[in-house]
């Protein structure tokens, strides 16, 4: 089951890099792209680099450890990433950023 939980305030999300939120034991990286928000697992699928600390290049975030790129809108990635990173639905509720995460039953 997935439910939306607050992970940040809109005002906390910078325009040029990510913000990391910890909720339900997960580290989720939040990004603002234009007027939209995206949420992905913070851990790179190569060896776990913190994607919230990566620079944004257009629709991509660049892993700060070895340079893999992840497209925030499609999930596509480049080597040395081993596969797409998990993405989460995001919504804005008033001044809050909410992310749909799976809740353990
Ligand atoms: S940990 Fe991200 S590219 Fe290596």
Give the secondary structure arrangement, pairings included.
Elements: E1 2-9, E2 19-23, E3 26-33, E4 36-41, E5 55-57, E6 60-62, E7 69-71, E8 87-88, E9 90-93, E10 96-102
Antiparallel strand pairs: 1-10, 2-3, 3-4, 4-8, 5-6, 6-7, 9-10
Bound molecules: FE2/S2 (inorganic) cluster (FES).
Residues 44, 46-49, 63, 65-68, 80-81 line the site of FE2/S2 (inorganic) cluster.
Give an account of the 3D structure.
The protein has 105 residues and is an all-beta fold. It has a single domain (2-102), classed as Rieske Iron-sulfur Protein. 0% of the residues lie in helices and 47% in strands. The chain is built from no helices and ten strands. The chain has a four-stranded antiparallel β-sheet, with no helix packed on it. A three-stranded antiparallel β-sheet has the order 1-10-9, with no helix packed on it. The chain is globular, with a radius of gyration of 13 Å. The model has no long low-confidence stretch (mean pLDDT 92). Residues 44, 46-49, 63, 65-68, 80-81 line the site of FE2/S2 (inorganic) cluster (FES).
């Amino acid at each position: 089951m997935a439910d939306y939980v607050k992970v940040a305030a809109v005002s906390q999300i910078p325009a040029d890099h990510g913000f990391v939120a910890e909720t339900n034991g997960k580290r989720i990286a939040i990004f603002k792209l234009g007027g939209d928000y995206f949420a992905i697992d913070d851990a790179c699928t190569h060896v776990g680099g913190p994607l919230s600390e990566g620079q944004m290049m257009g629709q991509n975030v660049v892993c700060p450890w070895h340079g893999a790129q992840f497209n925030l809108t499609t999930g596509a990635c480049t080597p040395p990433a081993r596969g797409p990173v998990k993405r989460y639905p995001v919504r804005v509720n008033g001044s809050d950023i909410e992310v749909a995460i799976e809740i353990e039953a």
